[in-house]
Amino acid sequence: MSKTFYIETFGCQMNAHDSEKVIGTLERRGYARVQDEVDAGLILYNTCSIRDKAEQKVFHRLNEYKKMQGEGKRFAVIGCVAQQEGEKIFERAPYVSLVAGSASYRNLPEMLTRLEAGETRITGLDDRQTDETFETEFTARSNPHRGYITIIEGCDKFCAYCVVPYTRGKERSRTAASVLVEARRMADEGFTEIQFLGQNVNSYRDPSGRMSFAELLVAVGEISGVRRVRFTTSHPRDFTKDIVDAIDATPTLCDHVHLPVQSGSSAVLKAMAREYTRDWYLERMSWIKAAKRDISITSDMIVGFPGETDADFEETITLLNVVKYDAVFAFKFSPRPNTPAVTMADSIPDEVKTERLRILMDRQREIQREHYGRHLGQVQECMVESYNTVRRQVVGRSSQNKTVNFTADLDNLPPIGGYVPVRITQTLPNCLVGEALAAGPNVSDAMFFVPVVRKPQFVVLN
Ligand code: SF4
């Protein structure tokens, strides 16, 4: 097997960041990354099992790889479908040599040694036993300006519809000290935005007992060079007022909270085993809305959960009207293997699910059209993400995690990863439009920033 690898990643930000760490581990071992599986000695497939189709995609893709077997290539299936299907993958795709779930990645170096020694049917499957997290000396981050840190892995919540507790293991947090070391290293390398990741990031419990989640946010927000700190995904059960207070008191903590509610009906929340009620959730919303800063709120929703009545669904719509989210990610319920919901009668016809999803997204779009209007005329600091050469605009991101498309001096475009003040001149349901402001007496110099990226040096371990 040549020391070249190709990796394909599916699913959430956690998977994307896991791949960054897997890539780092391989590069540290002297592997070179290639962009085409034809040129790779090792082909890795980082899988997601959150939705029905994701699983089928895996076996369909493996089938395509079948044609390449025997060319000195080795195949590895990692991630959530690997943990969920385990050794069954070897049955369906005997040319696969390694199957590893995310809770076993800390053993990747050892599994790679066995792979390089010619071993096959290597597994890294964890049955919610480990307390260890996956930390690497080197992470191959895809964006040099904004980077992720997974501070907690796994989930202990067991929502009735969700596979994550079975595919990512039990909740286990990194020590605050190790997170701070990584964040400082990132700031030294020029990262100005750091995003904490976790299935339930606010369920973070520092094993050394040194810091609460809110304290860790503030500590990273106070690192020199860090301009923005984000965190996702939070769980209402562990959402505490000190998180809002921390955002209010620390300008580098972004004024955005993503807090999935899933349904507006307490009866459906009970059936989903979310273990909070509509009122409990709305109390958390009231904390956020009472904050000094204008904190944007986004959420996730599931429609058509078994037993959801018209009245239950109506409660979801009224919750939208009360909260006025800045964005909602909504999905139709689909039963997932090994989850309690798979035993429930999937009683809502698909056309009804589709109709409820349409009604929900139409109402949310109306809310956003109106709610985004509050930004008109404001000056927002934007991080430059890309250039839209067709529209001759700069694409930026506000601290509230909104896309801002703005005009700028084409002869003096702000650099990618830079920060510029933008006056909002138009608001649309899904983005803001504006014009970059030039430095001047009415614009704070602090809103301008030119990034300095220092490529991290690492030693190849042969
Ligand atoms: S909290 Fe619920 S929905 Fe979120 S990852 Fe855990 S089980 Fe899944």
CATH superfamily of the largest domain: tm_1862 like domain
Radius of gyration: 23 Å
What is the number of helices?
13
Number of domains: 3
Please state the structural category: alpha/beta
Write down the overall geometry: globular
The CATH architecture of the largest domain is Alpha-Beta Horseshoe
What's the end-to-end separation, in Å?
A: 15 Å
Strand order of the largest sheet: 2-1-3-4-5-6
The major pleated sheet works out as: 6 strands, parallel
Mean pLDDT: 92
Mind telling me the CATH class of the largest domain? Answer: Alpha Beta
Task: Name the helicity range.
Answer: 25-40%
Named once each, the bound ligands are: iron/sulfur cluster
CATH topology of the largest domain: pyruvate-formate lyase- activating enzyme
Unreliable stretches covering 5 or more consecutive residues: none
Beta percentage is 15-25%
Question: Which features characterize this protein?
Answer:
462 residues; 13 helices; six-stranded parallel β-sheet; 3 domains; 19 strands; Rossmann fold; five-stranded mixed barrel; binds iron/sulfur cluster; 22% strand
What layout of secondary structure does this protein have?
Layout: E1 4-9, H1 13-28, E2 32-33, E3 42-47, H2 52-66, E4 74-79, H3 80-85, H4 88-92, E5 96-100, H5 108-116, E6 122-124, E7 146-150, E8 152-153, H6 164-167, E9 172-173, H7 176-188, E10 193-197, H8 213-221, E11 228-232, H9 241-249, E12 256-258, H10 266-271, H11 278-289, E13 296-303, H12 310-323, E14 327-332, H13 350-371, E15 379-388, E16 393-398, E17 403-407, E18 419-428, E19 431-436
Parallel strand pairs: 1-2, 1-3, 3-4, 4-5, 5-6, 7-10, 10-11, 12-13, 13-14, 17-19
Antiparallel strand pairs: 8-9, 15-16, 15-18, 16-17, 18-19
Residues 155, 157-159, 162, 164-165, 199-200, 235 line the site of iron/sulfur cluster.
